[in-house]
């Protein structure tokens, strides 16, 4: 039976998982492939460290270069993380004519254009299923399963840490800071949670999904990105009272006048399937013009789910090698000549309903001053809730609006913030009325 040589660079959480999956599922993998996968080299920093799987010590090296140069390695699996070294390894592998599998969304969102361009030029495959949604096969779905569709929109919960924190705040209450600390203690949030809670990790993943969906290259800098750090217990509670849940959403839409790509906390109706995605789970809702709504759900991270995606990429490439074909499906699912330069519309131009929370002095006439500013900006108020009573003191005042243009809304809020009856910077959360199964 033909053997295909693998070289891993990175032997941490995902690297260990890949070795485990390849060992534990050896039989079924062989039955499906008809060829044998053999790990020839694994590069890491510390060869002496005890790992969760046993490997032949001769396979281990501290030199990634050895993996890249090994003539027996046909597929290089980059599982190091970060961008600069990872870029060197991935580009180095492609230059050597090797196929690449990576789980690295930070790398692809920053250097994807270069990586995919070079891979196309060299006629090698690049698999990146694990870069978005961990074990969920969303990349394959966009590239192949839904390729007959014009993709109109993608809405996803694609960061488990942020979803875990928002779920805990929704179900148990508690301040963002306290829930985050507890999540770190339990191992659900990293010691440095910046990328996860500030929406940066979600933006990395959205850049990949939106590029594939619309056949363009979405630059990270064009994605409006806002994290969950300002969401309070009260917002989460009021969202529930208004019939919504707050989720950190990745949203991409392709409309006649351009593409929308944004990441921010969003209120979605409790009837929408995404609102039921709890804890560290991920889900991606895709709307295709032929298929309608499709929702994929599963574990977005972790050793074995992520390894499941990495090994599926390895198997895909191994099948191509065995059949003597490469680059059968272009990396983003569109042939190079068809890739378009689409403009991402600045967030200023979106039109959605808003939830707004003010801290306002509790006395007659305050609401009319605030609503007067909205009226002057042609923003229509849908509902008003005052929480509590504190005559002469500050109370939370919550207003929801009908659809309003973000630019107008921000201008109005800047004016309102200057009113002497408003005591703090207002908070606003966008509402997506993506109700029902086909929303
Ligand atoms: P880890 O930090 O657990 O592992 C990184 C590995 O890279 C370690 O084995 C480390 O070696 C090795 N390494 C670092 N620098 C070098 C170098 N210069 N040369 C050779 N080896 C090096 O990361 P993860 O496994 O968690 O993540 C890997 C990738 O997968 C990242 O891109 C991540 O974003 C992505 N990913 C991770 C998920 C997860 O659940 N963990 C989910 C989805 C994607 P040593 O062990 O000796 O220190
Ligand atoms: N840090 C990510 C998350 C996992 O919390 O979802 C890797 O993509």
Characterize the structure shown:
There is one protein chain. By secondary structure, the protein is an alpha/beta fold. The protein folds into 3 domains: 3-134 and 303-338, 3-Layer(aba) Sandwich (Rossmann fold); 139-300, Dihydrodipicolinate Reductase, domain 2, CATH 3.30.360; 348-431, ACT domain (Alpha-Beta Plaits), CATH 3.30.70.260. It is elongated, with a radius of gyration of 24 Å. A hairpin with a 2-residue loop joins β9 (244-255) and β10. Helix content is 36%, strand content 24%. It has helices spanning 13-24, 26-33, 64-69, 84-95, 105-122, 138-145, 160-172, 176-185, 194-197, 200-214, 233-241, 303-323, 366-376, 406-417; strands at 3-9, 36-43, 60-61, 75-78, 99-102, 126-127, 151-157, 224-225, 244-255, 258-269, 281-288, 292-299, 351-352, 354-361, 381-386, 394-401, 404-405, 427-431. The longest helix is centred in the last third of the chain and has 21 residues, at 303-323. The strands form 3 sheets. Strands 7, 8, 9, 10, 11, 12, 14, 15, 16 and 18 form a 10-stranded mixed beta sheet that branches. L-homoserine (HSE) binds at residues 159-161, 196, 201, 300-301. NADPH dihydro-nicotinamide-adenine-dinucleotide phosphate binds next to α1.
